[in-house]
């Protein structure tokens, strides 16, 4: 008994001496010298007294280098994330870093710090060790290598199986979830050909979610289900021997929510977005390089695809002789949108280059990617570009229906029902207004208005009635024009029929083919 008491008092005095030396050294030595020595003190304490707390130690190195993998150890990263939770309360020495585009500060345990964790009533300890490179272990050089780290998990031998079989997988899984939550999404755009980098990015901070998208609820759910099924289909794609990617075509008039749906998709899946400006791509080789440089879990978007490639009527206008040639080499058309460069693009990207981009050999280099086109004129696109297998899901975004209006009324006015709803339902059936215009009319014009809901609905009714009247006048004018031209049309009709027989025939068959294929997946929203 006496021997035991003496043993513990010896340990106590050694620990006290070491603590005193540590504190003294930290105060008197220049900080960079102390930085170099600190790891040795902790190593000594750990190897001398680690046995007091634990029987088993498992080490997770920061970097792994063997024949199967070379790089940062994913388990280490997951543990780092897992331990960052509540670390500000559990550890006394902390590191701080910014997350989510500088929106918050995240804390994690500092080097040589110990954190206690509990799992099913079992206590374990995590220790973060920094291993200095041998050649620079004690150095006066400020620019010395930072060194590598490892986490050491310490626990009693009797819990070995529960720790290895349940606790460690749990920590890794939780760590991955935390990483996913903390990862800030990026919005990339391709750089000019002269730049060294292929893509440049900003933090993606679009607030759109599917809850706020105005569309028919079943259709919305169908898109969400499709996206979620895609993210879980790695094995399925492997089994059928196809690259793990999916193509979406979003089409409809301006202001029906195509861009909002893209943002909602990215937010739902936590994917990065690559906004590919096709006119800035020099040629097919550059296009391929851009593709290879995208990361997995991303959405590659080509907006207004009909304005990027000259697909307009290429099949209708060209002669049979040059049809094949032209469908392979298509010049980039000058941009239609005001925000874009009005000059003719010098890009030499061709339709075949674009088709290869979507599903050629190189497109299989990454995984879990969505390729998405938007257009206001689906009829102008070459059927080859949007056929099933390339664009798997065709989604039409259209004028605002009553179901879509209800989503907007809930979002903008916090109204789920109102006696003006029925009148709005009738007007929406009688006229065409985009969700963007409906939203604009609903939006309260001055903040804090008491009866903002009712005012918003009345505004919308006025706007719908006006739109209905404009449509009526236009229809009347069109009828009048038809009447005036009726005689002339009759004279010319035989001539036109002859011309159309030659060139329109194929266009019609393409359209038929498109119609057939669209039955299952075409969503009219
Ligand atoms: N379906 C919708 N649901 C919710 N909001 C919508 C919807 N459609 C349009 N909006 C609103 O209108 C604005 C413009 O919509 P958006 O840019 O998504 O349309 P778009 O179809 O991409 O238009 P464009 O073809 O001109 O690019 C959005 O900021 C959004 O507030």
How would you characterize the overall build of this protein?
The structure is a single chain. The chain is an alpha/beta fold. The protein is built from 18 helices and 16 strands. The chain has helices at residues 2-28, 31-53, 74-84, 87-90, 160-182, 217-231, 234-240, 258-269, 284-292, 305-308, 314-317, 320-328, 351-359, 383-386, 402-413, 421-430, 435-442, 452-521; strands at 56-61, 63-65, 70-72, 94-99, 104-109, 114-119, 122-131, 148-155, 186-190, 199-203, 245-251, 272-275, 298-302, 369-375, 393-396, 523-524. The chain has an eight-stranded mixed sheet, with helices on both faces. Strand 2 (63-65) and strand 3 form a beta hairpin. Helix 15 runs parallel beside helix 17. The longest helix has 70 residues, at 452-521. The chain is elongated. The N and C termini lie far apart (83 Å). Bound molecules: adenosine-5'-triphosphate. Residues 212-215, 254-260, 376, 435-436, 439 line the site of adenosine-5'-triphosphate (ATP). The site of adenosine-5'-triphosphate has 15 residues, from helix 8 and helix 17.
Key terms:
525 residues, alpha/beta, Rossmann fold, 3 domains, eight-stranded mixed beta sheet, four-stranded antiparallel beta sheet, 16 strands, elongated, binds adenosine-5'-triphosphate
Query: What shape does the CA trace take?
Result: elongated
How many separate structural domains? Answer: 3
Major sheet details: 8 strands, mixed
Strand content: 15-25%
| CATH fold-level label of the largest domain | Rossmann fold
Secondary-structure-based class equals: alpha/beta
Instruction: Output the radius of gyration.
Output: 32 Å
Low-pLDDT runs of 5+ residues are 136-145, 311-344, 498-525
Name of the CATH superfamily of the largest domain: P-loop containing nucleotide triphosphate hydrolases
**Tally of individual helices:** 18
Q: Count the E strands.
A: 16
Beginning-to-end CA distance, first to last residue: 83 Å
Cofactor: Mg(2+)
Organism: Cinchona calisaya
GO molecular function: ATP binding; hydrolase activity
InterPro entries: AAA+_ATPase, AAA_N_dom, At3g28540-like_C, ATPase_AAA_core, ATPase_AAA_CS, Mitochondrial_chaperone_BCS1, P-loop_NTPase
